[in-house]
């Protein structure tokens, strides 16, 4: 699977490892108490406010009811794992780092616990575990594409579905990270997941959510057709392609996250954007194969026509139009004190 560069620490009686193992056995019991379909309801999260976004999403939950079906449209095969690994390196290159929240010193000091939600092949976790050997890193994904046997002593992976709640106790993590999960969540699933993120983050800890804009700016006609096809398919699944715009407000509405910061990065497609643009294009080209089974029927293109359209959009059009999008990291700190309610 391409993640076997780490040696196992078999037999190493490491106190951190022990604490993770304890944590993992706790997870199982917490997990089973969540039942079959709904999110674990946090006891420590403030009562939702009545902001428009949160209220409209809550109404949507009430009218829809079903939150349990998975809408994630992508097959986690070998190509997808390669794509996610490439995307990881592309993101790290463009952002010059794996996260934006001010947690370097906390992680460096050691004994910090970090969760990555929807960790995929675990590339982020493996790198972070190597960068901060005295902290503990846990990746969670509902698809077991993460390393199962060979991993650093301070990294663990756990198979779980976010729709069942996060299988951890309250106030467990110093940092909770979630990147590119937008296609896996219906609009109404965001509020309960954010509540869960807040619940498992320690007071004074940070959470960070990374997503990108769905739209491509300055796009040519072929690009526009491809983007529209993706939009049609994901909207049919109940996914709001513009959810990224609401994340800051959703975090703020919990009344538990402060110092919310939104960092954005213009992300060019193509060699006109230098090395960064080339990497982004490579990622997009691989995404085209990922999305092929999803959008090809809508586009009614043969295999050959599909490949031609992608090549035209990525190699020619995006350079000609100087197409770009934006990526965002939205992070905040969990309040250290709870304001007493009347
Ligand atoms: C686009 S990938 C992002 C992977 C990783 N965060 C990264 O940035 O490289 C989305 C990941 O979310 C996982 N996923 C989808 N639905 C999920 C769910 N309901 N619960 C947990 N993980 C889920 C997928 O298996 C996939 O690995």
UniProtKB/TrEMBL annotation:
Which residue stretches does the UniProt record annotate as biased composition, category Polar residues? 57-71
> Cross-referenced SUPFAM superfamilies, in alphabetical order?
S-adenosyl-L-methionine-dependent methyltransferases (SSF53335)
Biased region (Low complexity) positions are 41-56
InterPro entries named in the record: Methyltransf_25 (IPR041698), SAM-dependent_MTases_sf (IPR029063)
User: A single Gene Ontology molecular function, please?
Assistant: methyltransferase activity
Q: Where is each Methyltransferase domain found?
A: 114-205
Residue span of region Disordered: 33-72
Q: Check the record and name the Pfam families matching this protein.
A: Methyltransf_25
The name of this protein is 5415_t:CDS:1
Q: Which organism is it from?
A: Paraglomus occultum
